[in-house]
Specification:
The protein contains 17 helices and two strands. The chain is mainly α. Helix 2 packs across helix 12 and helix 4 packs across helix 6. The longest helix has about 40 residues.
Length: about 425
């Protein structure tokens, strides 16, 4: 996981044993915290609040179905985080940074493995006894270390070196947040401005550090590792923004009804599930498993994301335009023919739009790959039409040199009685 020319920092025998014991203790604490939060959710299922009861009645949804979704979603998210953490721990037992990542993912996954009900958050913050201690331990190893995790990724080195100070600053800030949640929960005035600027500084510095690392420091392997994490964070960011815009629109119009608040809960749980992409991406990166697949995933995500957005816009634009034309001509406000025509238009546009968007994305973000594919396509057309063997082998040498740029190149042609060699 280190840059070329460096050795991976490993643990001595004594520290390795201590690391294993510490991981096991954190894992046991994590399991206890997860079970405790699920029991809180089960208590809400047995005795739902007025908001939940009224909202379920308005939607006509069975309580078992609604709460079952949250039980399964929280469990799935937690299992993903725990499994990736365990896999990294087992596969890289001597890697110092891998142990840090494994513990962080375990704690961070546990700290977010709960149903996003306001009622659940209230109950979790008022828990006493060991549950309160276990929650505090998980929070201590998650949010305070978040910026340090981003700053150290993917090789366990602070690059550039100054980013360690921003990670240390955010660690103490988040630690204070965990110890004195009442003072940090609703900041206002100068303290609120200070807190907002501190958060922006912490995450902004780690983001800048990753960009600087990618452009000036990271070898090809690390660049692929960074792409995996950036892709997961990008999905989380987009989903979170969509969820936040939806909530803001409702709150600007009026206070959400109980039924609308249930939709917000479901959307929030969906956003939390997307957080599961982070441990998955980090697991691929740390274990160096199928790293180069991320380029294909990014290309397809960009292509179909843009395509879906355009098709939705075209569909609704076509419906509105055709409804207006039909209403003017026929005097009928609603016409089923409009829906049929719009659907047929979308079906006809799907393939050409997809191909056009794919070419545009390849030219913009994958220029070298796009140029190589274009050269190969041109060569395929030459093969169909060219009958002169000398010209064909010469063109083959040019294509390979242009797309692969080898130091030397030879083409062997097998004849009936001897092998002829042509070099370029």
């Amino acid at each position: 996981m280190m840059a070329a020319g460096r050795e991976t920092p490993t643990l001595s025998a004594g520290w390795k044993l201590a690391g294993r014991v510490f991981w096991i203790l954190i894992a046991l604490n994590s399991l206890y915290t997860f079970v405790a939060t699920q029991f809180i959710l089960f208590g809400l299922f047995e005795n739902p609040s007025e908001r939940l009861a009224v909202g379920l009645a308005e939607w006509g949804i069975a309580r078992e179905l609604y709460f079952g979704y949250f039980f399964l979603a929280v469990t799935l998210y937690y299992v993903i985080s725990f499994a990736v953490s365990l896999l990294i721990f087992l596969r890289r037992p001597e890697d110092r940074y891998a142990l840090f990542v494994s513990i962080f993912l375990l704690a961070f996954g546990t700290a977010n493995a709960y149903a996003p009900f306001p009622e659940q958050l209230t109950l979790q913050t008022t828990q006493g006894g060991f549950t309160h201690i276990s929650l505090f331990i998980n929070n201590l190893l998650s949010w305070p270390l978040l910026v340090a995790f981003f700053a150290l990724y993917p090789d366990g080195q602070f690059v550039p070196r100054w980013v360690r100070w921003s990670a240390l600053y955010v660690f103490f800030l988040a630690l204070g947040w965990g110890i004195f949640p009442e003072q940090f929960s609703a900041p206002s005035g100068a303290f609120g401005i200070f807190l907002a600027l501190s958060v922006l500084f912490g995450f902004g510095s780690s983001f800048y550090a990753q960009v600087w690392r990618y452009r000036h420091h990271a070898p090809p392997l690390q660049r692929q590792q960074i792409k995996w994490l950036v892709y997961a964070l990008g999905v989380v960011f987009v989903v979170t923004i969509i969820r936040q815009v939806y909530v803001s629109v409702i709150q600007q119009l009026r206070a959400p009804t109980p039924a609308e608040s249930l939709v917000i809960d479901v959307a929030s749980m969906g956003a939390t599930l997307c957080y599961g992409l982070i441990p998955i991406a980090v697991g691929f990166a740390i274990l160096r498993y199928r790293l180069w697949d991320i380029d294909i995933i990014i290309r397809r995500t960009l292509t179909y994301g843009v395509l879906t957005t355009m098709l939705i816009g075209i569909y609704f634009g076509t419906v509105i335009l055709l409804q207006y034309i039909f209403s003017v001509v026929t005097g009928v406000q609603q016409n089923e023919v409009v829906t049929v025509l719009s659907t047929l238009a979308i079906a006809a546009l799907f393939v050409p739009l997809r191909n056009g968007i794919q070419r545009l994305i390849d030219r913009r973000f994958y220029r070298k790959k796009y140029d190589a594919q274009k050269v190969l396509n041109d060569f395929a057309e030459t093969v169909r039409d060219e009958t002169d063997l000398e010209k064909l082998t010469g063109r083959l040498i040019d294509v390979v040199q242009e797309t692969m740029e080898p130091r030397s190149l030879s083409v062997w042609l097998k004849a009936e009685d001897k092998a002829e060699k042509r070099s370029g």
